[in-house]
Amino acid sequence: MSFSTLPRPLHVLLVEDNPGDVDLAKAALRDCQAAPQITVAYDGEEAMALLRRRSERSPLPDLVLLDLNMPRKSGIEVLAEIKQDPALRRIPVVIITSSQAEQDILKSYDLHANCYIHKPIGLDEFRKIVKAIDEFWFSIVKLPSTVGNETHYV
């Protein structure tokens, strides 16, 4: 379902270790038509802890924006864990990273990333990317209404 028909506000999990990029993403997401709630995880371990805790107690995020190059647990490892977990694998994962390495792109899609975006430099370019994410993922795409480990089809 699109954001306008979800029974709750949209929630985005931003997994990013660079504070400057976190600030850019938050500023751009605040300008989105969907005005999603944003939770930030600063490394892969924190992201997985948040996802597992949410899947037990509260709604999962509607979208994960995932950087690949992070401390403690890489974005590739996080993506693999998300897509192997039956309680998490339906969550769309958008890779947004500075890596343009072909092996990172291939590995991300092999692990079922929903898309791979090269992270732009600068607020204006970043806002364009986030606006495209907003228009596509929050307006065009139909998202499941996920609560805990159950998916409610509406």
Please give a structural write-up:
The structure is a single chain. The chain has 154 residues and is of the alpha/beta class. It has a single domain (3-146), classed as Response regulator (Rossmann fold, 3-Layer(aba) Sandwich), CATH 3.40.50. 41% of the residues lie in helices and 19% in strands. The chain has helices at residues 19-30, 44-57, 75-84, 102-110, 123-140; strands at 11-15, 37-41, 63-66, 93-97, 115-118, 145-147, 150-152. A five-stranded parallel sheet has the order 2-1-3-4-5, sandwiched between helices. A two-stranded antiparallel ribbon has the order 6-7. The radius of gyration is 14 Å and the shape is globular. It starts with 10 loop residues before the first strand and ends with a strand. 32% of the residues are buried.
Strand and helix layout:
Elements: E1 11-15, H1 19-30, E2 37-41, H2 44-57, E3 63-66, H3 75-84, E4 93-97, H4 102-110, E5 115-118, H5 123-140, E6 145-147, E7 150-152
Parallel strand pairs: 1-2, 1-3, 3-4, 4-5
Antiparallel strand pairs: 6-7
Summarize the entry for a quick read.
The chain has 154 residues and is α/β, with parallel strands linked by helices.
